[in-house]
Design brief:
Elements (H helix, E strand, L loop, with lengths): L1 E6 L4 H13 L3 E7 L19 E5 L5 H11 L3 E4 L6 H6 L1 H23 L10 E7 L38 H20 L3 E6 L1 E3 L8 H10 L4 E4 L5 E6 H14 L5 E4 L4 E3 H16 L9 E4 L14 H7 L7 H14 L1 H7 L3 H10 L3
Parallel strand pairs: 1-2, 1-4, 2-3, 4-5, 5-6, 6-10, 7-9, 8-12
Antiparallel strand pairs: 9-11
Length: about 375
């Protein structure tokens, strides 16, 4: 029985990872350490809260004593660090919070793991640490001249993609904080031999995503006939990855990835934002039969500062070394995601009340 400490396990990707691991393996224990900030929601994990192989610890990765106590109490074989402030708009409004949590929180977690795992001979035994990163650390890519109707490259074999050796060029406070965290992880491996690997994923979507991100925001607004705010001209392109595919990749890299290496995790599902919005409108209308859900709801708003034009990942390395590949095409994943949000109105109601509504108004009311 192996023990996995998952930090930020009440957030979107973290909670999906906890659920994935517990349903996939019978010989895995999960310890979920989460500070329960605005996007951390224990309702995501109601189905496993009584599972004897699951433990929740309410703590912040910046709290050295709490982290050290958790490591001592549970002696995890693996640490998977999801804990991070993750929304670009929030980072533009308050960059210091992102530096504090994403950078200093990661450094604190590394220090605590290093102290707990040090075997006294300069080694760390069989322990492994995985830092969950983002494609945004690479900056932006040019839009190819030839595009398909959905915004994907018409000639992918002759198109630029982010690769593990692509120079780091973050453009937002969020991506700068994640870049710094990645570099600290790499430095701890290079300096101390710390047993770490890094994954960098493209845009995730699926169940339990907080409705400030594009896909759940559009689904929720469409259901309630609210405006669908689209930044700029809507032609920014992202590579969309269904969250379960990402969870599988993290599991594989944590177990078998080469220490000190970076692995890009991408969906090969590049789509323009406006295409995403229009497909959500179409699918919500088809599933609900509500003719008021139409493209008339689309509202173009002032573009985000420093808005990267295109992200596109090349997950060749993880496929060649570990055999991972994305199994969920966007057209399948978006229908599954819409149906989940429609089937879980209580969850949506709970997370879209109070502070979220205040934030939503600050972000879009004057644009």
């Amino acid at each position: 029985m192996s023990t996995w400490l998952v930090t930020g396990g009440a957030g979107f990707i973290g909670s999906n990872f906890v659920l994935y691991m517990l349903r996939t393996y019978d010989d895995v224990r999960i310890v979920n350490l989460d500070a329960l900030t605005y996007a951390g929601n224990l309702e995501n994990l109601l189905s496993v809260q009584d599972n004897p192989r699951y433990t929740f610890v309410h703590a912040d990765i910046r709290d050295a004593q709490a982290v050290a106590d958790t490591l001592a109490a549970h002696d995890p074989d693996y640490v998977i660090n999801f804990a991070a402030e993750s929304h670009v708009d929030r980072s533009i409004a308050n960059p210091g919070v992102f530096a504090d949590t994403n950078v200093m929180g990661t450094v604190n977690l590394l220090n605590c793991c290093r102290a707990a795992w040090d075997d006294g001979t300069g080694g760390f035994g069989a322990h492994r640490y995985l830092q969950v990163g983002t494609d945004e650390v690479y900056g932006t890519l040019a839009i190819p001249e030839a595009l398909n109707a959905d915004g994907s490259p018409a000639d992918p074999e002759h198109t630029d993609y982010f690769r593990e050796d692509t120079p780091l060029s973050p453009h937002s406070p969020y991506s700068a904080s994640k870049t710094s965290a990645d570099l600290f992880v790499k430095a701890y491996h290079d300096t101390y031999g710390f047993p770490a690997v890094i994954t960098r994923c493209s845009n995730n979507y699926g169940p339990y995503q907080f409705p400030e991100k594009l896909i759940p925001l559009m689904i929720n607004n469409a259901i309630h006939h609210k405006p669908l705010p689209v930044y700029g001209d809507g032609l920014n392109v992202r590579d969309w990855l269904y969250v379960d595919d990402h969870c599988k990749a993290i599991d594989m890299v944590a177990r078998d990835g080469r220490l000190g290496e970076v692995y890009n995790v991408g969906g090969h599902n590049e789509r323009a934002n406006i295409y995403i919005v229009k497909t959500i409108i179409q699918q919500v209308r088809e599933v609900t039969g509500d003719e008021q859900v139409s493209e008339d709801l689309i509202t173009y708003v002032q573009d985000r500062a420093g808005h990267d034009r295109r992200y596109g990942m090349a997950p060749d390395k993880i496929r060649a070394e570990l055999g991972w590949y994305p199994q969920t095409p966007y057209e399948e994943g978006i229908v599954k995601t819409i149906r989940w949000y429609l089937d879980n109105p209580t969850w949506v109601e709970h997370v879209t009340s109070g502070a979220y509504q205040d934030y939503y108004e600050r972000m879009y009311a004057d644009k």
